[in-house]
Amino acid sequence: MFTHEHLALQKSVRQLIEREIDPYIEEWEEAEIFPAHEVFKKLGRAGFLGINKPVAFGGMGLDYSFEIAFCEAIGAIGAGGVGMAIAVQTDMATPALARFGNDEVRDLFLKPSIAGDFVACLGVSEAGAGSDVASVKTTARRDGDDYVINGSKMWITNATQADWMCLLANTGEGPVHRNKSLICVPLKQDNGKPAPGITMRKIKKVGMWSSDTAQVFFDDVRVPRRYLIGEEGMGFTYQMKQFQEERLSGATRRVTALTDVINDTIDYTRQRMAFGKPILDNQAVHFRLAELKTEVELLRSLIYRAAEVHREGGDMTELASMAKLKAGRLCREVTDSCLQYWGGMGFTWENSVSRAWRDLRLISIGGGADEIMLTIICKQMGILPARAA
Asked: Are both 192 and 285 inside the same structural domain?
């Protein structure tokens, strides 16, 4: 799928990663946060935060295949939390705004996000509503020219540093799939302090340490109604479309990360001696690594097929769901198998494989659990019972 232009883009992204990100990974992992504004500004200056976004708002205006090339490149970042945080900016919090927002709201929120001046986050999940998006309880009640927002959002990546949130909230009393809207919600005042009515609780995670994650609480938070994305009541539909790009982005980043895990394991097992020969020389080991590499390349092909459908204006829901499902399963299989070949060293913190083992576990949960992907695929196949459809 890639031309020399795609490969040139990837080379530029990787050079920036090697220069501006990877040297600081250990420091950021220890601190459990990375300087998002500083990093995003560097990415924004290079044009990498708006590859397939409209030129009128600072984007490159390239087709979706270039965004997939970018996602592959950032999958090489030495800590999954940083790549995930960048992907929130490019593929999770802004696609609906770019596609359905009016010019005013795109100028206010999309343009500075593409430039790297704003850090964005996505507010969908709640403590009682993760994969079950239709059951979110946060409300945005009309009051004159404002919405008044009450409720909370859970597991919000970038939250403590974000300037604004793409928020899914109930704006009506109708059917659950038609009573929700996406709203751009400023999280900070001009002085950098939290906006009135907003508080946060930082969450400590198993992996993805360098990414800040928090629960965000809204207590009578006022937002102008003109910050609505698209039409009121269409938020659930917009978010389902936005999810497809999030899911394919997640799968794409993992292809690179898993390839790196396999390559690191080859290097380690080639050097590590046991019973007079390198561990890699055991047929059980090198055959298993060959099997895992084959599975990863099959996932890459599925991702490219889904991306091509999306680029041509088709519905990639089934293929993106399959890719995310397979990526989640492979993340567990590859990292667990490779960690085993590292022996006792694999059970320490100080190697790339144990970090990948922790970080990559998330994809089977975040953005729709494996079970939700299976449900979507079954629905696309026409085999889901009517009561579950």
From this structure: no
Residue corresponding to tokens 């929130």: 88
Which is catalytic among the residues 72, 126, 245, 246?
246
What b/e string do you get for 110-138 counting C-beta neighbours within 10 Å, with b at 16 or more?
Answer: bbbbbbbebbbbbbbbbeebbbebeebeb
The 10s digit of each residue's pLDDT in 255-289 is: 999 999 999 999 999 999 999 999 999 999 999 99
User: Do 169 and 191 sit in the same domain of this protein?
Assistant: yes
Query: Reduced to 3 states, what is the DSSP secondary structure of residue 310?
Result: helix
pTM, two decimals, is: 0.96
Domain identity same for 301 and 205: no
Q: Is 246 an annotated catalytic residue?
A: yes
What would the pLDDT profile of 92-108 be if each residue is shown by its tens digit? 999 999 999 999 999 99
Cβ burial, residue 237 (10 Å; 0-12/13-18/19+): middle
**pLDDT per residue over 108-147, tens digit each?**
999 999 999 999 999 999 998 878 898 999 999 999 999 9
Residue 54 has phi, psi (to 5 degrees) of -60, 140
Residues 378 and 275 in one domain: yes
Residue 389 pLDDT level (bands cut at 50, 70, 90): very low
Distance CA 34, CA 124 (A): 23
For residue 126, report the phi and psi dihedrals to the nearest 5 degrees.
-130, 170
What is the residue type of 85? A
d(CA 214, CA 217): 10
Question: At which of 177, 208, 232 does a domain end?
Answer: 232
The range of the structural domain enclosing residue 107 comes to: 4-115
CATH number of the domain at 75, please.
1.10.540.10
Domain count along the chain: 3
Helix (H) or strand (E) holding 29: helix 25-31
